[in-house]
Design a protein that fits this description.
2 copies of one chain form a homodimer. The first copy, chain A, has 342 residues and is an alpha/beta fold. Chain A is 42% helix and 16% strand. A 6-stranded parallel beta sheet of chain A has the order 2-1-3-4-5-11, sandwiched between helices. In chain A, strands 7-6-8-9-10-12 form a 6-stranded mixed beta sheet. The structure holds a DNA duplex (16 and 16 nucleotides).
Chain lengths: 342, 342
DNA sequence: TTGAAAGCGTTACCAA
DNA sequence: TTGGTAACGCTTTCAA
């Protein structure tokens, strides 16, 4: 609220209070050995000058910034947004702050972002990788800075990871579909390079083969390449229309819904649907969309916990690969009885 | 890639290269007047020591951090996530970074976050307010730091804002519904305190009154208080079921879809629907959901542009209140012909 | 073309 | 209970 625009420094506070810089610093940090009278003097000066500490200088001196870098591919994906929100929530509890970067699915940008964050002296990094495997070069640079990877097992012992059993969850979900009597089940998604996608695909195939069914998939190279038209073609292509779709992530699931609408296919009567990753409108559809749900809140929390442990123990630990359980939410779209009807 | 874990400093680089600190600094910053031979010497040392500049120290000295603070209420709202992504994209072009905070709809947390970001010496702040009006106290602290507000007109001349004509857009949308012949149209949403919500509500009422219709609304105090059950009650409450719903934001729209499903109401035959704010699954529903769409990409871009202008010109400008046009996307749910059918 | 020295705003080690 | 003084890692006069 000062008229003069320049920000007050602790030095100025000290002068205004008629004490030394160090004494003002002591008051600021609630250190002991300050005479109450002096403290009042200093606090008064701080008040008058509307003093605000400069955390940049503080961090430089203290050698830790209180900043965590968060690297994600997209923010428009519900799962990612929910994770970031959970991460923020947990980081905040430790009075730290988040620096966020969004790579838009570009591994080169991702590598650049990691470097930028390291220069900014983040104390740790939480990465949701955008490409199949984190670029080794990117990772090399992080030596000395703790890293937690989400969605992909930690590539080195220097890092921790928080993942889910993608393959297992996919297998069980597909087995569930098979249990409904569907034989022609197609997996739909994009980006085989991604660890999550490839594992889910493997799980799908395992489930199919074990039941003597022929795996069939439509997996585009990138998210953008998976068009609604291409999905429609998969529906009308052969004489044998798929009886069910296993969507490899929520984006694919939504596009499939889109395509099914265009083809006027009823769910689950004409084609059943089960997707990986929950999304905000899943229960608003008629019928509700069955999904494999990840514990986003816990993923974020555990990632931050692991990171802080590393930061404190200064890398004196072996890498941890945490695997959290998923939840198969059977709603209506997979062919299950319609629980949404009272 | 060094074996020793401590990070190299420019000082060490200089020593290793056998030059002075300043010379190393000159090389680092591509300053002229460095003998090519010397430059090579320094670059070699940098390479060997895997030198990475410390942006904290740099910022402290240079007195600008290259960091923009972004304050949002939720990340799980599609509109917000899209805005943040757009902001990041534009900020990145200026080689700056984003510090993100999420208030979870708590004005007290929001005020705290603003203070934290200021202490961290952000060069500017982009705020999507969580409460009706930004807490004056929060804003007071920002004096000297440029602020751009999204979704709400700048409360003071010290700030800029990027908004949309909420009232007008709502009015036109409701008029469109009325044009379809609906008479009993109900507005559904939450948080009257929010500038966006209250303006949209006013627009709705104006449109209704001008046509001699009686406004009717269901507006909960907070997002969480707007339950699906309460919406269902609105549908069955009176003998006069609403003929159409005007949802005040996407969260309300999704909950309405949910409620309509439970009540087995067909869209638009039983009840038509038009919502404020687009969302990722809007076109996947049958019929597609008609919405008023905000230009998120442009909102983010313009917000950053305004902010950087202020940062450069050092507040020598009057506050700008940018108002960007919305788009009324008539899909199927409002009762329009069904363009989604080929 | 190069370098010594003084800061940026804090914190921390010793004395007083 | 206090206060010099030296860092933190970098940039920036001003000389040489």
């Amino acid at each position: 609220m000062r008229g003069d625009s320049q920000k007050a420094t602790l030095q100025q506070v000290a002068r205004a209070a008629g004490v030394s810089l160090k004494t003002a610093s002591r008051v600021l940090n609630h250190e002991p050995h300050v005479k109450p009278t002096t403290e009042l003097l200093v606090r008064g000066a701080m008040e008058r000058l509307a003093y605000q500490p400069n955390d940049l200088a503080r961090s430089l001196k203290a050698r830790h910034s209180g900043v965590i870098g968060v690297v994600v591919p997209f923010l428009s994906h519900y799962f990612v947004a929910a994770c970031v929100q959970a991460i923020h929530h947990e980081v905040e509890r430790s009075h730290a702050t988040i620096m966020l970067t969004v790579s838009s699915g570009d591994p080169v940008a991702e590598a650049l972002h990691i470097r930028v964050l390291l220069r900014r002296q983040v104390e740790g990094l939480i990465i949701l990788p955008t490409s199949g495997h984190l670029q080794p070069e990117s990772v090399a640079e992080t030596i000395g800075t703790p890293v937690v990877v989400i969605d992909q097992p930690a590539p080195t012992l220097e890092m921790d990871s928080v993942t889910i059993p993608n393959r297992l969850a996919a297998r069980e979900a597909v087995r569930h579909l098979i249990g409904h009597g569907y034989k022609r089940i197609i997996a739909i998604g994009a980006n085989r390079n991604l660890h999550t996608i490839s594992e889910r695909l493997v799980g799908y195939r395992e489930a199919m083969r074990r039941q003597g069914l022929k795996p069939l998939d439509l997996v585009a190279n990138t998210e953008n390449e998976l068009s609604i038209e291409s999905i429609q073609k998969a529906f009308v292509r052969s004489t044998k229309t798929p009886q069910a779709v296993f969507a490899l992530n929520s984006a694919a699931c939504i596009k499939t819904l889109h395509a099914m609408k265009h083809c006027r296919l009823r769910i689950p009567e004409d084609v059943a649907l089960l997707g990986f990753d929950d999304f905000d409108t899943a229960e608003a559809f008629q019928p509700s969309i069955s999904v494999i749900s990840q514990p986003t809140e816990e993923i974020g929390r555990r990632a931050v916990e692991l990171l802080f442990k590393r930061i404190q123990k200064h890398n004196k630990r072996a890498g941890q690969r945490l695997v959290l359980a998923t939840d198969l939410l059977l709603r209506g779209s997979c062919g299950c009885g319609k629980p949404q009807h009272r």
